[in-house]
Amino acid sequence: MTLPKESTDTGLLKTILEKLENIESSIQTKSAMTDNEQGDTETQSKAPISPSVPASKAAGISPPSPTSLKDNVYESHVILTTYPNQVGIKPISLKWGATSAQERGPIVASRHPQSIRIRNAIGAYGGSYCIYRALAVAIGDLSPNHRPDYTNTEPPFTFGHPAQWDDPEKIVSIDPWGHLTVESFGDQISKGIDIRPTIAVTRAHMKLAEVDEAIEQGRLAKDGDVVTSEGQLKVLKAAIEPVWYLPGVAKRFGIGETLLRRALFEDTGGMYPELITRPDLKVFLPPIGGLTVYIFGDPEKISDPSQKLTMRVHDECNGSDVFGSDICTCRPYLIYGIEQCVKTAQEGGVGAIVYFRKEGRALGEVTKYLVYNARKRQEGGDTAANYFKRTECIAGVKDMRFQALMPDVLHWLGIKKIDRFISMSNMKYNAITGSGIDILERVSIPEDMIPEDSQVEIKAKIADGYFTTENAPTEKDLVNTRGRDWDDIHH
Ligand SMILES: [Zn+2]
Questions:
Q1: Which residues are known to be catalytic?
Q2: Prediction pTM value
Q3: Which family does it belong to (predicted)?
Q4: Contact criterion met (CB below 8 Å) for 203 and 236
Q5: Which of 75-89, 112-126, 233-247, 250-264 comes out lowest in average pLDDT?
Q6: Dihedral of the CA atoms 410, 414, 417, 421 (nearest 10)?
Q7: In the predicted model, what is the mean pLDDT of residues 199-210?
Q8: Is 60's pLDDT higher than 80?
Q9: C-alpha to C-alpha distance for 360 and 319, rounded to whole angstroms
Q10: Are strands 350-356 and 309-315 parallel, antiparallel or unpaired?
Q11: How far, in Å, is the centroid of ligand 1 from the Cα of 481?
């Protein structure tokens, strides 16, 4: 096939296609040889999907010893779906932003035998946990064709059908029908298609030491409803895995879809060739952490603009949130947010915390700890003046959370306005208000909840433009705001 070079991107795509063609013909040759050797006529009578090849030969490696691989885990042939216009591959069409789940169509990411031909999404269900699923299959703990039994898994509350679900540009990073998968596509599921929920909703009770303290000190009261007589918080929660509609995600960031696909392909180490070779697949399930919504009070009220809503959007900081590290304000801020949500719920309104798995400003904990060391060891010690510089030296940017996709979950909840927004972040504020949701009041963390060592972080953030009701620190304040020294950390 001779192809004109039009641009770098299409040139690359075509080079890949040519290579794939070569691989395909070599694979088909090998496959035919193997089939002949084994006298395997069964595979030839199946619907023609090419290329197909014995697993060991596809990888170009010798087969593992019989003891290291459970017998018959997979069929002997690998079906690649990276080649465009393959015979037998017919993805179910998707209409993003359609007004019903059926019209929109199911998101099928599975490679199970009955789903692989109609699969219409790149990636796998379960976010990053798909890797553990793979291990479970490889060691023989899980059948690759296991199908979930969804009995009694349905959500206790469904959030109705907010108008935002029908706008293809309002929600681009989650599947608004993701918790209604079983209800909406039960027929297809019972016929054997592997369609999985990407959202699950449940109820729970929460017990927090700080809430006990707030009750003791009289800041919160047990009302027997939002706060039980035992001091537990009643909560409705929703876990959400990301489902990216690539044209919408690209548009949100003001870039082209081709560039987005290329970047995702390159920076996942080429993990998803279909990003490049299958432009017909518009949905991508990225292998990243999702988010959880915690709702205090009556969830019906969250989309009702006549009801008061208090809310915090919190990005994960495991060291502080769970383990109580005092170098930052994350857990105190989270607790303050929960307390304010509970108060609003007790006053007859509703409160919500949205918890995003974006550890360490989405730079990850390894980068975060490198930054901590660099901050504490730098000349002059850890000061607010140099807070962001150390992160930039190591990560190249000071923040990778890019809040552009964050408001999607608020639109999924049907939120139209937020009365009290418990956050100092301008990025979060701008993303939310820019998406059409009003914020009536911004609330920063009270001074007495800020740990001493995290003054560096908070002062630096305020100087960088974060919201505060207090005076912004001067240049001198920034230099003088020092965290714990390296020597003090040794223990
Ligand atoms: Zn933190």
A1: 399, 401
A2: 0.83
A3: Belongs to the GTP cyclohydrolase II family.
A4: yes
A5: 75-89
A6: -30
A7: 97
A8: no
A9: 9
A10: parallel
A11: 18
